[in-house]
Amino acid sequence: MNYQHSSLAPGLYLVATPIGHARDITLRALDVLGSADLLAAEDTRTLQKLMQIHGVGREGRALIAYHDHSGGAAAARIAEEIRAGRSVAYASEAGSPLISDPGYRLVAELARQGLPVTVIPGACAAVAALSVAGLATDRFLFLGFPPAKAAARLSWLAAEAHGGATQVIYESPRRVEDLLVALAETHGEDRPVALCRELTKSYETVLRGSVAELLEQVRETPPRGECVLVVAGAAPEGAGAEDMETALVNALERLSMKDAVKEVAESLGMPRKAVYQRALSLREDG
């Protein structure tokens, strides 16, 4: 399908792009990429390849690189183009612009100048991982990438260890083992987690279990590709033996013992072994 150039109102258009599968792009995103007066991208080659796949031509339009090393000059040019009445489409390398992406500085500067900004929503690795992790999604905290150095990473994780919200962390495959080791120290070996890799791609994999269980699996088979780690929030304040027993009684009425133990351990953030022992006692007591 060919997308023809048509008029867009002046302003910056934040265009979400696929995180893996090239077809995970919206029709509106393709319309904007085909219609904007100028194009801007964190990685210009990636955007050009995506446009070629979907039959969106550049038609002589300028393509501006906007990343950590070009931000100041590129932002000034984009602002100047918008003030001159032109539309600019900005795409990050993959996913939603501004999520672990330098584009937020551009939006902040345009907002400061009172220039219009519009979002064209779409794929986001953090949201995709939350959807398949099997952990609570009513409250979540996006943490992005952890520090590379061990001491800084421990402090960074420790600051969030007792929060009740589910945590979403991006990490490179070569540092996932180090991240899980640090999580075992700050959050505990029994904290439920899900490791999501290569989301939307042909080798998409989701590993679920405790920090200790995933650490063992990662050591046996080191992950490859883009990784998102979803970590259960801490148990609610005051959650104890009585809360666990009540939750177990309710869960055992609906589920097998294995599934009931898993549900209660994850919902209360309690060690699975302790929940299992209590479930055995309840069964013996009738």
Automatic annotation (TrEMBL):
<keyword id="KW-0489">Methyltransferase</keyword>
<dbReference type="Pfam" id="PF23016">
    <property type="entry name" value="RsmI_C"/>
</dbReference>
<protein>
    <recommendedName>
        <fullName>Ribosomal RNA small subunit methyltransferase I</fullName>
        <ecNumber>2.1.1.198</ecNumber>
    </recommendedName>
</protein>
<keyword id="KW-0808">Transferase</keyword>
<feature type="domain" description="Tetrapyrrole methylase">
    <location>
        <begin position="12"/>
        <end position="214"/>
    </location>
</feature>
<dbReference type="InterPro" id="IPR000878">
    <property type="entry name" value="4pyrrol_Mease"/>
</dbReference>
<dbReference type="GO" id="GO:0070677">
    <property type="term" value="F:rRNA (cytosine-2'-O-)-methyltransferase activity"/>
</dbReference>
<keyword id="KW-0949">S-adenosyl-L-methionine</keyword>
<keyword id="KW-0698">rRNA processing</keyword>
<dbReference type="InterPro" id="IPR014777">
    <property type="entry name" value="4pyrrole_Mease_sub1"/>
</dbReference>
<dbReference type="InterPro" id="IPR014776">
    <property type="entry name" value="4pyrrole_Mease_sub2"/>
</dbReference>
<dbReference type="InterPro" id="IPR053910">
    <property type="entry name" value="RsmI_HTH"/>
</dbReference>
<dbReference type="InterPro" id="IPR035996">
    <property type="entry name" value="4pyrrol_Methylase_sf"/>
</dbReference>
<comment type="function">
    <text>Catalyzes the 2'-O-methylation of the ribose of cytidine 1402 (C1402) in 16S rRNA.</text>
</comment>
<comment type="similarity">
    <text>Belongs to the methyltransferase superfamily. RsmI family.</text>
</comment>
<dbReference type="GO" id="GO:0005737">
    <property type="term" value="C:cytoplasm"/>
</dbReference>
<feature type="domain" description="RsmI HTH">
    <location>
        <begin position="239"/>
        <end position="283"/>
    </location>
</feature>
<keyword id="KW-0963">Cytoplasm</keyword>
<dbReference type="InterPro" id="IPR008189">
    <property type="entry name" value="rRNA_ssu_MeTfrase_I"/>
</dbReference>
<dbReference type="Pfam" id="PF00590">
    <property type="entry name" value="TP_methylase"/>
</dbReference>
